[in-house]
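Lecture 7 notes. Example A: sequence first, then its structure tokens.
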Amino acid sequence: MPIEVTTVYTKECLLRYQKYFISRRKAFWIILAVMEVFALGVSLCNGILWGDFSLLLRGLLLLFLIDAVYIFNYVIYPRISVNKAKNLNAQVRFSFEEECFHMYSSNALFEENSTIQYTMPTKIYKKGNDLYIFIAQRSAYIADLSSLSDGEKEALRTLLQPNFKPKNFKWA
């Protein structure tokens, strides 16, 4: 018996995916944090220890620029990309079966009907009620599992898990 899920790709739904995807870029956030600590350390050393307040101001300006990059990447960019998304307000119906899943999606701009074998997606991550089915490095289908009972969610996990390596299957 197939497991049926319907999702509407609202702005909130797409923003949750964007923030999830951005937060997974660990190298970016580590480099950003190291730059923050380094700039703060150099600024404080130059300003306090050596009395060079012009370098302190430059360091604080650098911190401001680093924070601006953070704000742009985590707050502004996701909103820009969501507003331009072709799949905004699309209604997507998933039907998960034993060997594949069927997906029908439509909005004012397009209509798509696909059958996808479980060998095609590269990763499956579940966060909260959102199930991200990655079909490429930067592209995923989003299934909202909030309408499913706990038993149906467990049945879906049991159906999907054997098709993926443990590192490519996260169910939290």
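Example B, a different protein, same format:
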Amino acid sequence: MNSLGRWAGWAASGAVALGLLSGCDKSCTEMGCVDLVRVELTPFEVQGEVQLSVRADEALIECRYSQALGEANCEAQDVWLRLDRTAAGALRLLGFDLVHRLPARLTVSVTLEGAPVASGAAAPSYDVFEPNGPGCPPACSVGSVEL
């Protein structure tokens, strides 16, 4: 065997030994994730101020959004709005994600300029999501409800 072949053999043996010694039997990536429940709404055009009121189990979460206010008021409450624009450029609210919470029950009320747009109560169902592969941390729970 030539020296290159011996070197390749030693390198391969060393890699296998390191893998066995470290207990590494799988390859994990390092993506992060957050626990959340996604609330789907019937999309509506945002013309004015939107007020969200969410009861997540016993916690009451309220936030306001308008183009002038921006999303900071809701983000401070761990409410991530899901907005998009129509082909004509109109801003629409599709729903929101309630992050860092896994409530057993949600009661939601959404108003636009004080007029009711959506409301309802639901018990989210949750799935565990492992973005780095099975058995690789972190594992996050993701739930959804449709109003």
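Note on Example B: The domain at 36-146 is CATH 2.60.40 (Immunoglobulin-like). DSSP finds two helices and nine strands in the chain.
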